[in-house]
Amino acid sequence: MSNLDVRPGAVECGGREDVEGGPVHELLPPRRVPLGESTVVRRLLPSLGRRMVGAWCFVDHYGPDDITDEPGMRVPPHPHIGLQTVSWLHGGEVLHRDSLGSLRTIRPKELGLMTAGRAIAHSEESPRGHSPILHGAQLWVALPDVHRHTEPAWEYHADLPVVAAPGLTATLLLGELDGAASPGSTFSPIMGADITLEDGAAARVPVEPDFEYAALTMSGVLEIDGERVEPGSMLYLGCGRRELPVRAADGPGGFVLLGGEPFAEKLVMWWNFIARTGEEIAQAREDWATGDRFGAVEGYDGARLPAPALPPTRLKARGRTR
Q: Disordered: where is this region (predicted)?
């Protein structure tokens, strides 16, 4: 998924000096951002005060939207470097195309995982004859320096591990949870799980004390570590827990739990690129504009996305919170 802001600012993130060493409750309100031709998303990360959760560096939540008489999602071909994209649906379908020649329709609870590495381009759209409801999340994972120039790759996993407890079901996107391991490729200590709670259910989810965590509520009203979290909001939880109490506060509900070891490296993120210097960002933008490096996305009915202008100030990497 693309950041379609026509005047994107540089986001400076990474480093461990501002990571909370113990448990916290920091509610991250969403910012509404237009995406493509007909979709509006709630952007939760990066936010004004919180840039990353482990290696997770970008979180958009969209829907549930009634697209019965609408085209649905239409995100034209656009480039990425230095990251992975995770496509995750609760409702509807997204058709993925990329410059490797991949073509795949992603459906609810199926993992679409794209590793940009040195360079890739892709598009995303609701297919013809799509379902009436579109609901999901798009997430980015920053690649550590040793892997950020790796060859681009696309993975699709329809059968993911499921962890169950009374009143709770957890589908594992990435990493490990309670002895289960996702088949999705990872490049740093990280986890992501989609957790569903039945009406009135309460449970304690095992977590790693050295990881920092955040919970994105997808549906229903939940109590997460005693904090009430509405749909479309994300609660940053810090580090230092071994278990996370959760409860469905008003009917059934679901959330995506994101965690990881705090990301030590300093990054600069601008538009759809993650790099270490402003010069790398400028070169990636130039390569996209001239048709070098990223390849072509075949089959999308429309023009590719032009790169916005670079900001007038020098891009540099520092800090993970503002």
A: 1-25
**pLDDT 10s digits, 208-236:** 999 999 999 999 999 999 999 999 999 99
In this structure, CATH architecture of domain 11-260: Sandwich (2.60)
Kindly list the domain boundaries of the chain, sorted by start residue.
11-260
- Give 315's contacts (C-beta < 8 A, 6+ positions apart): 10, 268, 270, 277, 278, 281, 282
273-275 and 23-28 strand pairing = unpaired
Whole-angstrom CA distances from 301 to 21, 36, 263, 298 are 48, 13, 38, 9
E-strand stretches of 21-93: 23-28, 31-35, 39-45, 56-66, 74-80, 83-91
| pLDDT beyond 70 at 132 | yes
pTM (2 d.p.): 0.92
DSSP 80-105: EBSEEEEEEEEES-EEEEETT--EEE
Q: Which residue, among 222, 251, 248, 253, has the nearest Cα to 235 in the 3D structure?
A: 222
**8 close to 270: Cβ distance less than 8 angstroms:** yes
Per the CB < 8 A criterion, the answer to whether 34 and 1 are in contact is no
pLDDT band at residue 32 using 50, 70 and 90 as cut-offs: confident
CA distances from 12 to 217, 248, 278, 287 (A): 26, 36, 11, 22
